[in-house]
# Entry
Amino acid sequence: METKEISQAVVGRLPRYLRYLGELRDEGVERISSQELSERMQVTASQIRQDFNNFGGFGQQGYGYNVEYLYEEISKILGLDRKHDFVIIGAGNLGRALGNYLNFERRGFIFKGIFDIDPQLVGEKVRGVEVMPIEELENFLEQNPIDIAVLTIPKTSAVDTVDILVKKGIRAIWNFAHVDLNVPEGILVENVHLSDSLMKLSYNLSRRMKEQTKG
# Structure
């Protein structure tokens, strides 16, 4: 469907559109206008139309959008019409929380394995998947076609682990380690810095509190 390079800002808004459309679908709403969607999402109607026009528009002027059709089309754009197997490297609190998150599977992300360096964690189960020693990672990747690796390990371990992942054909990395990864061209990396998000929230909270004090 995509015939041109789409900005990451637009791509970043697609999951939010999908979430709201899913809610509308669950409510039994069959059709919605850009203005009605705008009011729900607090995004301008013109922004919504511009975003959707990157992919062909999806609607008819004066007629609005078919919710089910739009939901399915955005799902396809996001690659959710196919399954993606993933493994987690790091069986600490964050790794286990991600492994237990059932909504990933509903979106087509299938949890296949979890690994850790700590022998005390090896053998524990996360949603029925046994934690394996990190030494078994290479062999596991050779035996199983895995698309995505999730890193929830300290940055000191991440670099060496990434070398293994790249060598064994991992195509995408969801990186929670506090380090910028140096990977070959063609390997996709999505960095998630939880502390950065919290500090952004702290900034906005501090600003709001100062405004209230002035008032």
In short: The mean pLDDT is 91. DSSP finds nine helices and nine strands in the chain.
